[in-house]
Amino acid sequence: MKMQTRTYFRGGWGQGFLRWVNLRPEESERTLLMFAFYTTTSIGLLWLETSATALFLKQYGAELLPVIYIASSGLGSGLGFFYSRLQKTLPLRSVLVAIAILMGVPLFLFRVGLQGNYVDGVIVLATVFLLRLWMDATTVLNDLNTSITANQLFNIREIKRTYPLISSGLLVADVISGFSLPLLLVLVSLQNIIILAGIMMLLGAGILFYLTRRYQQSFPDSPMRNLEDLQPEFKSRRVGGTLQRYVIPLFAFFILGQVLFLVVEFQYLSQLERNLDASAIAGFLGIFSGILGLFELATQWFLSSRLIERLGVFVAAMLLPICVVIIGVITFAATSFLPPSISILGLITLTRPFSLFIGVVCLKFIDELLRYTLIASTGAVLFQPLPESIRGSIQAMVRGIAETLSTGVTGIGILAIIGLCYWAFPNLPKVAQDQLQGNVFVGIIVLVALGWLVTAWLLRSSYVNLLVQSAEQGRLGFSDVDLRAFKRAVIEVLEQPGKEGDKRSCIQLLSQIDPQNTGEVLAPLLPRFTPSLQRQSLEVILEYPNPDYLKDIQALIAEQLSPEVLALALRYIWLAEPELDISTLKPYLRPEVDPTVRGTAAALMLRRGNTEDKAEATNTLRRMLTHKRERERVMGCRALGEADYLQALRVYVADLLQDESLRVRCALLEVIGSTRQEEYYPSLVRGLYYKSTREAASRALVKLGDEALPLLSELAEDSHKPDLVRFSALNAIATISTPAALTQLTSQLITSWGTTRRNLLRILLKMPGEIGIDAVLDRLGRSGVETFIEQELLLLGQIYAAQVDLEQINAETLSTKLEPDLRLQSYQEALLLLQRALLNLESDVIDRCFLLMKFLYPIGAIQAASFNLKSDSRSNVAVGLEILDNTLDLPTKQVLLGILDQHPSAEKLEILTEILPYKPMAPSDRLRRLLELRHFLSEWTLACCFHLARAAHWSLTTDQTLVCLRHPTGFVREAVLAYLKEASPRALLELLPVLKNDPDQIVAAQVQQMMVDLSN
Question: Which of 197, 445, 487, 931 could be 48's S-S partner, Cβ–Cβ 3.0 to 4.6 Å?
Answer without folding.
Answer: 197
